[in-house]
Amino acid sequence: MACTSCASDKAGTLNDPKWRRALWIALAINGGMFAIEIVAGITGGSKALQADALDFFGDAANYAISLGVAGMAITWRARAAMLKGATLALLGLYVLLAAGWGALHGTVPHAEVMGIVGVAALIANALVAVMLYRFRSGDANMRSVWICSRNDAIGNIAVVLAAGGVFGLNSAWPDLMVAVLMAALGLSGGFQIMRQARSELRSGPTPLPSDYRQPLHGSR
């Protein structure tokens, strides 16, 4: 599921060139799979694929924040996290509304498209999880990124099972149920990210009073 902890919380994590390279590869894989799944979900009529694309977007944004704003002031990292959380929540709301519309007016999605893309997504997340496996015992940020990739692979299995349900039952309900669950997790994750970012913005550096003067060196 979409990761709710930003791996950019500690800039020291990115000092390892192997860690940076792994993040770049993970970013490329997740960004590419987000584009593939969102297009396949819309054209194939699968709300579960659209919801699963949220996971790829959330992780891609997580890796981008890790690489882009690590080392900056906490206020800038919090603003980037706020943008990520808001976008993730909006996408979750879109999938939730789309699932509701599909329940009332939709047709049965293409199970073949769901199955093929779902398996491809599972392979992609499995590759990322294996690549990040050696960092699982690092600091909290390294471990959280690996756990998120592992959990995303579990979400992909749910999409593949939904495709089997659609094919076997000739019904859209397996697809819609998985979509609602994953969209709800996306909404929850987005709000959690925004809540934490808001807290970090409020607890940022306190500005000095306008009448404050720096003591002269050597003054007693």
Q: What do these coordinates show?
A:
Residues 23-201 form the Cation efflux protein transmembrane domain. It is a multi-pass membrane protein. The chain crosses the membrane at residues 22-44, 56-76, 88-107, 113-133, 153-170, 176-194. Residues 201-220 are annotated as: Disordered. By secondary structure, the chain is mainly alpha-helical. The chain has one domain (14-201). 75% of the residues lie in helices and 0% in strands. It is built from 6 helices and no strands. The protein has helices at residues 17-43, 47-69, 74-105, 111-132, 140-169, 173-202. α2 runs antiparallel to α5 (140-169). It is globular.
